[in-house]
Design goal:
589 residues, 26 strands, eight-stranded mixed beta sheet, alpha+beta, six-stranded mixed beta sheet
């Protein structure tokens, strides 16, 4: 079978290739550049704890070496400290929780890393993968589809035809894939502008990130953020007026000196300026994320970033959602519902994030009318911004998919737990099939469903005693009969779950359903819904319609690249050494 073609070798495209390889799917990554990332310390990214854990599972080591997790978060207004949070330096999730749902808990610490360091770590991980081929200086100019796959043509030194089972456009805001498909990309331009500097200095709160609103010194920006990086480096962002003058080097130096003096008792400490830039934020959302066998991910599908939201973090969530669905389709075939659910789930989640940011901006930036002057309004604004930055609340919390087309219908055997259906599960400690104790998050991303049994006391007794006792034999029998590959895990406890509850978890860590005990038929039905049903579940006429329009919809292909060129492409891909159906088994096993 043909590999998946990935257009774009930024962090999203690289991560997708690694996520597919982890599930036995080969890919070709078409990189328009020469394959080198320019070091830009001022261009950094913030990853929520769960996405940082996902990237580490893919084999990226630079997160530990060149990234930093904040130990705390400070919120200041004028001269006062209005909010201080201690952050959880674990990977998010804990076995300790309160029975009181209103009890405060420490947010998991985000991870901050220069984008070039992240990309370099992903490329290093790819170097150890036989299922991934990186093609530098390959510029896409043509896409064609048929009922069996996709044909793409690239220009450049390695210009040729490429044949793939699917194609994913991870080629950024100016996506060629999106343009070839004729997909509209509406939204708002220049929602916010920030002057950015990366500098090495000492600030009074080592390891903590800061949001300073309305600083008291003259000429200051309305909002300044300072976020630590390793080796004493800080990234500082100054919110600029919507239609302000260009940021000259002299003006930026003046901002740096005034800001450092304002934070250090009026004295500018020694500093080394490493990198500067102006960061312009746009809000855009592609109308469609899927046209038959071609899909969009990352900045090609959405642009966001104002009010604490992080664009690359959302792009990696696209990868987490799409990779297991593509892998299941590649290995087993799938109903149209499974790949359609990628657009349904992810586009709705990003649209919700964009809507929340757009509704909040007029209030947070001073255009909120009387609400700005209501008692407690300023504190509420600060809390909203803080939550957006640290990854919780309406602007920052990981997305849930409660209305997913993969959600199973309600049945009597279901039971509520602390995680709503469709939301990410807690990262509790579990016992794996080999008897080792691991985090639940460590078992994600391998293309299989997880079945979690909550069994108090299993940590006390030897595994050989409880493995064949109680509900375990019946549960393992039910899991073996499921329509998709699944793994049984056992936990001492799970937030809000009664003893002997059974949780069904998707490969990307979202809860499908929870049951009060072992219910084989209901568990089977939920697993079948989670995989989108079988290919035979699709109406036959609907499948035929999709196949007939597959090579026409939204593409601007050359007339000569028809069925004949598809055969040539397949031959050239095979000759180029890309994994095809004949060697798939050897690569996977």
């Amino acid at each position: 079978m043909d590999p998946v073609i990935i257009v774009g070798a930024g962090p999203v495209g690289l991560a997708l290739s690694l996520a597919l390889a982890a599930q036995g799917v080969p890919s070709v990554v078409l990189d328009e550049s020469a394959g080198k990332d320019e070091p830009r310390p001022a261009r950094s990214v913030v990853l929520r704890a769960d996405m940082a854990a996902m990237v580490e599972r893919l084999g990226c080591t630079t997160l530990r070496d060149e990234g930093v997790r904040w130990v705390g978060w400070r919120g200041m207004r004028r001269r006062q400290l209005v909010r201080h949070l201690t952050l959880d330096l674990g990977l998010g999730g804990t076995e300790e929780w309160s029975e009181d749902p209103a009890a405060p808990s420490a947010p998991a610490a985000p991870l901050h890393i220069p984008q070039h360091a992240l990309a370099r770590g992903l490329r290093a991980a790819i170097a150890h993968q036989k299922l991934i081929r990186l093609v530098p200086e390959a510029r896409l100019d043509t896409i064609e589809q048929d009922r069996d796959g996709v044909v793409a043509h690239t220009r450049g030194p390695a210009g040729t035809w490429w044949r793939g089972s699917h194609l994913v456009g991870c080629d950024g805001a100016r996506s060629t894939v999106r343009k070839l498909l004729g997909i509209r990309f509406p939204g708002r331009t220049a929602v916010e502008r920030h002057a950015v500097a990366a500098l090495r200095t000492e600030l009074p709160w080592p390891g903590e990130a800061l949001l300073h609103r309305q600083p008291p010194w003259r000429g200051a920006a309305d909002e300044i953020t300072a976020r630590p990086l390793p080796d004493g480096v800080w990234r500082i962002d100054w919110l600029l007026p919507p239609r302000g003058d260009l940021v000259t080097p002299d003006a930026l130096i003046a901002r740096i000196r005034e800001t450092l003096a304002g934070w250090c008792d009026g004295v500018t400490p020694p500093y080394e300026l490493i990198d500067t830039g102006v960061h312009t934020l746009h809000h855009r959302l592609a109308r469609r994320w899927r046209v038959d066998r071609v899909l969009l991910a990352g900045d090609a599908a959405h642009l966001l970033g104002a009010v604490g939201t992080q664009g690359l973090d959302e792009g990696l969530r696209d990868v987490d959602n799409l990779a297991w669905k593509l892998a299941h389709t590649w290995h087993h075939g799938a109903s149209e519902r499974l790949l359609d659910s990628y657009q349904s789930e992810r586009r709705a989640a990003v649209a919700h994030r964009l809507r929340g940011a757009d509704q909040s901006l007029p209030v947070l930036r001073g255009g909120g009318g009387l609400r700005t002057y209501l008692p407690g309004a300023a504190r509420g604004h600060d809390a909203l911004l803080t939550d957006g930055h640290v990854g919780r609340g309406p602007l920052g919390a990981p997305p849930a998919y409660p209305h997913s087309p993969l959600a199973p219908p309600y049945t009597e055997g279901r039971t509520p737990v602390g995680t709503p259906e469709g939301a990410p599960v807690e990262d509790v400690r579990v016992t794996a099939p080999d008897g080792t104790t691991v985090r639940l998050r460590d078992r994600l991303g391998q293309g299989r469903l997880l079945v979690l049994l909550v069994a108090p006391g299993t940590g006390v007794w030897d595994r050989r005693h409880w493995r064949g006792a109680g509900v375990m034999p019946r549960l393992e029998e039910a899991v073996a009969a499921l329509p998709a590959k699944a793994e049984v895990l056992v936990a001492e406890a799970y937030p809000g779950a009664p003893a002997h509850a059974v949780l069904l978890v998707r490969p990307d860590g979202h809860l499908v359903a929870a049951f009060a005990g072992v219910h084989p038929k209901e568990l089977y039905a939920a697993a079948d819904a989670a995989r989108g049903g079988s290919p035979a579940d699709d109406p036959e006429d609907e499948q035929e319609d999709k196949q007939e329009t597959g090579s026409k919809t939204g593409t601007k292909a050359d007339a000569k690249a028809g069925a004949k060129s598809g055969k040539k492409a397949a031959a050239k891909v095979g000759a180029a050494g890309v994994s095809t159906g004949s060697d798939r088994t050897a690569d996977m096993h």
